[in-house]
Amino acid sequence: MQQPLYILSGGSSRTRGQAAQDSNIRAGKAVASAVRTTLGPRGMDKMLVDSSGEVVITNDGATILAKMDIEHPAAQMIVEVAETQEEAVGDGTTTAAVLTGELLVHAEDLLEGDLHPTVIVEGYTEAARLAQEAIDAQVLDVDLDDDLLETVAESSMTGKGTGDVTADVLAQHVVRAVRMVHAENGRFDRDDVRVLTRTGASSSATELIEGVVIDKDPVNDTMPTSVEDATVAVLDVKLDVRKGEVDTEYTISSVEQLDAALKAEDDELRGYAKAFADAGVDVVFCTKSISDRVAGHLANAGILAFKSVKKSDARAIARATGAKRLGSATDLDESDFGRADSVSIETYGDDDLVFVEGGDASKAVTLFLRGGTEHVVNELERAINDAIDVTVAALDKGGVVPGAGATEIAIADHVRAEAAGIEGRKQLAVEAFADAVEALPRTLAENTGMDPIDALVDLRARYENEGIAGVISSGRSGEIGDPVEHGILDPAAVKREAVESATEAATMIVRIDDVIAAE
Questions:
Q1: Which family does it belong to (predicted)?
Q2: Contact between 218 and 292 (Cβ < 8 Å)
């Protein structure tokens, strides 16, 4: 008899065939179900507690999945779906995760019916293409004016924790912010809209600052705390005694030589302040260190200076004010500097915040968010970031579509209609895809307090009669209505990305029939 051949190490485990498929699908379904109840305006929050005791309370799908300690590789793929959705369009992470889970649910039924995984993958891929056609057909032929963009931003924040400030007020701030920095040629730099949070006031104290706000103290307490019509310099160089590239020793044999060396050193440090003063600089932002002696000379010259500024903050200030980031403090030219109407220091609790506002600084904006607790401002920050992303997505990536599950109902109807013309067993997978998409409005209805089966029947009937139907939250329950009339709109890009990423993840999981794990 032949000796047994061992390919895997003794500590490895292997799961094959239906057992591997069942394990992967169950893991994917479990993760999707974890965020399912957060979907929609009546979605519930999750409390996440890590091993160190840090608590996060949110209904943001991306945050929930990122904070969950997930080990199963197939379940981790659902997390990657949410991450991809977040990076691409900034919203719709829960939608993408729930859709992936539903596609796996229906794939499981198809596998039990002896449908080959390859056929399921082909059917899902074809259905995803049909879904994209349906989304394109749902794009509204409207001008994306401020009112419409505010509707989009508000829709993305509905159901999220915003403290004592309403979503419509925050939406106005968001649209103003995006409009201020969004170039007419369609170019938008996400870094031009900054978000800064501070506790100590209610959420209604949130405001839009036309400029940049950073958390930094001046290098000397005697420096001015406010400068009007400021000339701004941004440096990436130390303001200290220069050191040679090689070690050098000097022999000093007299007090006169020591005094001369100290004077030369002081002249060099004093020269930094003189150079800035002679160039008319009022404020210096330095990403590196500023020695105490230089700080004293700058203070004596009436110059406000900050050291160890984060590179991201320095980049924002330079971009906002029109300043160049300088690698040398010599040979300064007026064209190297930026301009701002004002640079001021304001105290919030124990922190000093620097406001760089107006003039050229209005090329960048800061949404300054307030809240009574860290939990409030953190959730508010997540809501605002989603609103910014969907507003930009609506402007730059293909317009808007009806929300409240209406687009999903249209997708399901279109996919089913086209499925009749698809030959073979692949038709079953295409129809299953339509059923999976309908789980989204069904979940919305359930989270709103409606009977999900009755709601789905009513949605289908109204769509057949009127061509549009969505789940509208009303009072303690909901109703079937026209989401466009109720101002519930979503960026088309969010729907497109959710369908694409969910289909890719589900088909990848379905195709796996062998799991080899090292222990």
A1: Belongs to the TCP-1 chaperonin family.
A2: no
- 284-295 in b/e form (b: 16+ CB < 10 A) is bbbbeebbebbb
For residue 232, list its beta bridge partners: 283, 338
Residue 106 has pLDDT above 80, yes or no: yes
Buried-state track 52-71, b at ≥16 Cβ within 10 A, e below 16: eeeebbbbbbbbbbbbbebe
Q: What's the pLDDT score for residue 515?
A: 63
Q: HSE of 461 in the Cβ direction (CA atoms, 13 Å)?
A: 7
Q: Which two tokens stand for residue 292?
A: 């105490």
pLDDT at position 391:
86
* Angular region, 277: left φ>0, alpha ψ -120 to 50, beta rest: alpha
Give the C-alpha separation, 495 to 499, whole Å. Answer: 6
Handedness of CA 30, 31, 37, 39 (dihedral sign): negative
Contact 31, 438 (CB under 8 A): no
What does 35-71 look like in DSSP terms, one character per residue? HHTT-STTPPPEEEE-TT--EEEE--HHHHHHHS---
CA-to-CA distance for 447 and 441, rounded, in angstroms? 10
SS3 of the chain: helix, strand, coil, percent, to 5: 50, 20, 30
**pLDDT for the residue 6:** 47
Instruction: Please give the C-alpha separations between residue 419 and each of 320, 415, 423, 426, 432, in angstroms, as whole numbers.
Output: 53, 6, 8, 9, 10
- Tokens standing for 131? 């879904």
Q: Which of 308, 327, 87 is nearest to 190 (CA)?
A: 87
- DSSP tag of 281: -
| Res 244 pLDDT > 50 | no
Per-residue pLDDT tens over the stretch 364-378? 888 988 888 888 888
**Which residues are annotated as catalytic?**
60, 93-94, 386
- Tokens found for residue 197: 């949070």
Q: Tell me: pLDDT of 159 over 90.
A: no
**The two structure tokens encoding residue 265:** 């050193």
Q: What is the largest CA-CA distance in the chain?
A: 101
CA neighbor of 381 nearest in space, from 130, 139, 199, 144: 199
Contact 178, 193 (CB under 8 A): yes
Backbone angles phi, psi at 484, to 5 degrees: -65, -40
Cα dihedral sign, 75-79-80-85: positive
- 10 Å CB burial of residue 342 (0-12, 13-18, 19+) is middle
Q: In whole angstroms, what is the distance from residue 105 CA to residue 82 CA?
A: 18
- Would you say residue 317 has pLDDT above 70? yes
What backbone torsions phi and psi does residue 58 show, to the nearest 5 degrees? -160, 160
CA distance 216 to 486: 44
132 and 499 Cβ atoms separated by less than 8 Å: yes
Residue found under tokens 């709109």 = 489
The mean pLDDT of the chain is 83
Residue labelled with tokens 């401020």? 146
